[in-house]
User: Fold this.
Amino acid sequence: MMGEGPIHLGHPPSYDACQGTEIEMTSHLILEERPEGGIARVILNRPEARNAQNLPLLYALDDAFSRAMADPAVRVVLLEAAGPDFSSGHDLRQSLDMAEGASFRGASHNDLVHEPNGLGYMAREEEVYLGLCRKWRDLPKPTIAAVQGRCIAGGLMLAWVCDLIVAAEDALFIDPVVAMGVSGVEWFAHPWELGARKAKEMLFTGDAIDAREALSRGMVNHVVPRHSLSDFALDMARRIATRPPHALAAVKKAVNETLDIQGQRTAIELAFRIHHLTHYHNMQQHGMLGDPSGTPGAKPVLPRK
Assistant:
C-alpha cells in the first residue's frame, strides 16, 4: 500500500558492504527493498569494489529484476548503487575463461559457453554482457537508474538499459576501453545515446562526459544534487506507478520496437562481433585480450586466455 515503510527482502537494510568470505558476500551483492507500494528498489552493493560487476553480482541482479517482474504489486523498478560510484564496470580480476564455465547458467542457451576456444569466450560474453542487457532493456515494467559518481564502461551498460536515468551532479560517464585495444563495451549503444560524433569523441579520447552534458544530449533525463538523487528517483517512480501497468508495458514496447526498427538491435549485435574481432586481434598480437600499448606504464588488467 502507498505510504508503507521500506520492506527489506531477505537482505540487511544497510547499503554497507557485508564482511566475510566470498560465499557469504555473494548473497549481499544486491540489496532489494520495497520502499513504497508499487515500487521495487534494487541496489548494487559492492561499494568496496566500486560496484565492479563479477558473475555473482550480474546473476544476483538478474534474479532481483526477475523477482520484481514476477511480483504483481511492483509497477516500477529503481536501480541504485551503494557507495561513491555507480559502477566501475566489469570486474577485470575475474576472467571469463573456462575456469568460470561451471558458473554460467546458459541464459543464452548456447552450449559454446563451455568451450575453451575463442567461440566459447564470445559465447560467455554474449550471455552475461550482451544477453543480460538485451533482457533487461526489454523488461516489461519501467526501470529508472539513479547514477552517482563514476559510471565506467560496463556501468554504462547497466544505466543505458534502463528506461530513464537520473544523474547526480557529480556523475561522470566514461568508456576508456579503446585504450585497451577493444572497440567499446559489449552493449554498444553509444551512437544511440549520444549521437554519432559525440560517441566517436567519447570512444577515441576516453574523456568523461559529465552529468550536464549528458543531460544536454538526452542521455539522462534529469540532473539533481547528490543528496537528492534517491528521493528524486523515488518521486518519479511514485508518479509512474499510478499509471495502468498494461499501458506502461505497451508504451515501453512501442518505443523499444521503434528503436529496433531504426536498427538499434542489429547495430548493437554487429558491434558485439566487431568487439570480439578486436579481442581476437589482441590475442594474436599480444597473447591477451587487450593491447597493452594503449595504456603505457599501466599494469595489464585484461586477462590472458
The CA atoms of residues 53 and 297 lie 25 Å apart. Residues 1-26, 298-305 have pLDDT under 50 and may be disordered. The first strand starts at residue 7 and ends at 8. The chain is about 40% helix and 15% strand.
